[in-house]
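Illustration: Flagellar motor switch protein FliM.
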Amino acid sequence: MAEEVLSQNEIDALLSALSSGEMDANQLKREENDKKVRVYDFKRALRFSKDQIRSISRIHENFARLLTTYFSAQLRTYTHISVASVDQIPYEEFIRSIPTMTILNIYSVSPLDGRIIFEFNPNIAYAMLDRMLGGKGSSVNKIENLTEIETTLMSQLFEKALDNLQEAWESVVEIDPILEEFEVNPQFLQLVSPNETVVVVSLNTTIGESSGMINICIPHVVLEPIIPRLSVHYWMQTEKPKNRKPEEYENITKGLESAILDMKVVLGKSTINLSELLHLNENDIIPLDQAIDQPIQLYVDDEPMFSVQPGKKKQKLAVQIIEELKGGNEDDE
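Result:
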């Protein structure tokens, strides 16, 4: 445990109090020997370390940025989403903290067990719906009278946002989130026992002129298999390179040997104007910038690779390789 360091002024004040009798040295010793008791509520079991909570916060900060870009493109209005807080609380407390009627999306996150909840504040949800239907993004709370079309539109919007969740978590685990349920009454949701610890990530959200919260509830049972990966040691460790097997090298070599390359030889270049081009006649000579006694270049996929000299082989035009070009075009050397 870190010790508190006193400043010189504090030391002088302490010595003055001891010498004047305002403070009893024996009393200080007794207080140091007294056991310090900290109250612990077993109903609020803290099952995640601060390090793991920071990792979850970092993942969802990335998710918030991705979600901001996605909703901005889909709704074509000003959108800003940021992480407000990350807390671990009992599931019962989470259910009590959200409105009686709200927008709830329940996702499975295979291959992880259990399901997670996205709670969209009605102000945000209806602002999104209004934008999708061509409105200005105003919010009208009519959550008890959602039509089938409105429910379908919201579900599709939230379902397409799952790609961002998958991308945000891919540094820790590859998940395949699927929207399973769309609910408006939290009392009908009993994913885990009331005292089960859940992580609640709250996102401050602004859509146009409307603002509210998006709450993500992740039960401990979902994260339990990957808890070791949420530590700082996992983030900082680097994977050792895996040695390839001989058969893998052989397959790569065969693949490269069968690759088809486009090769060409440029005899030289020249520049003429359009008038000269239009008046070209048979037997006219166009001088090139390539000297006859200088080697020419062979290009492989438009990259100069070799210096060559032209000739014939078996009555066919051919070139003979003189040297390999290092670092691209010889003019650049």
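Reading the tokens back as a structure: The beta strands are 79-90, 103-110, 115-120, 176-183, 197-207, 210-219, 263-266, 296-300, 303-313, 316-324.
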